[in-house]
């Protein structure tokens, strides 16, 4: 043992797990383990953010480009909604994020960038016109 966190994070993680399992607590790298634990939470938040931005971008395209609606867009909406539902079940502590105004504004900005880049359009509203409940509902589509 002795791999450093910065040289090979996977080998380091395996060594740290072995040290923890064997009860060698004085040998563990507490500082980097704590950072890795925090990073797990950040990774889960990034996943929620990414999926929500993709969902919102496709809802924008659905509403503002009705002539281009296709099965691919409908499938993306279905997939992102299901993935968000499963993610929030797996990590329920993220659900309060859905009510944070600053977070929602940042997600909306990301969604606008995605929708504008994919469609070369600049016709979308500056703020999200839909509720979170509608956005996540598999039964709802903007018209």
Write up what this structure looks like:
The structure is a single chain. The protein is an all-alpha fold. It has one domain: Malate Synthase G, Chain: A, Domain 4, CATH 1.20.1220. It is built from five helices and no strands. The chain has helices at 9-21, 30-64, 71-90, 101-119, 132-136.
Question: Which short descriptors sum up this protein?
Answer:
elongated, mainly alpha, Malate Synthase G, Chain: A, Domain 4, 143 residues
Kindly summarize this structure in a few lines.
The chain is mainly α. It contains five helices and no strands. The protein has a single domain (9-136), classed as Malate Synthase G, Chain: A, Domain 4, CATH 1.20.1220.
Helical content stands at 55-70%
Overall CATH architecture: Up-down Bundle
β-strand number: 0
Shape: elongated
Q: Element order, helices and strands?
A: HHHHH
Query: Which percent band covers the strand fraction?
Result: under 5%
């Amino acid at each position: 043992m002795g791999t450093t966190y910065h040289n090979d994070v996977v080998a380091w993680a395996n060594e740290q797990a072995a040290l923890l399992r064997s009860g060698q607590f004085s040998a563990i790298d507490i500082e980097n383990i704590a950072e890795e634990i925090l990073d797990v939470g950040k990774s889960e938040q990034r996943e929620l953010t990414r999926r929500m931005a993709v969902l919102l971008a496709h809802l924008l395209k659905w509403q503002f480009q009705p002539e281009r609606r296709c099965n691919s867009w409908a499938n993306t909406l279905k997939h992102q909604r299901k993935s968000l539902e499963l993610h929030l079940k797996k990590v329920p502590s993220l659900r309060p994020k859905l009510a944070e105004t600053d977070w929602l504004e940042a997600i909306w900005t990301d969604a606008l960038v995605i929708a504008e880049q994919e469609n070369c359009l600049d016709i979308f509203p500056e703020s999200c016109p839909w509720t979170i409940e509608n956005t996540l509902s598999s039964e709802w589509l903007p018209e």
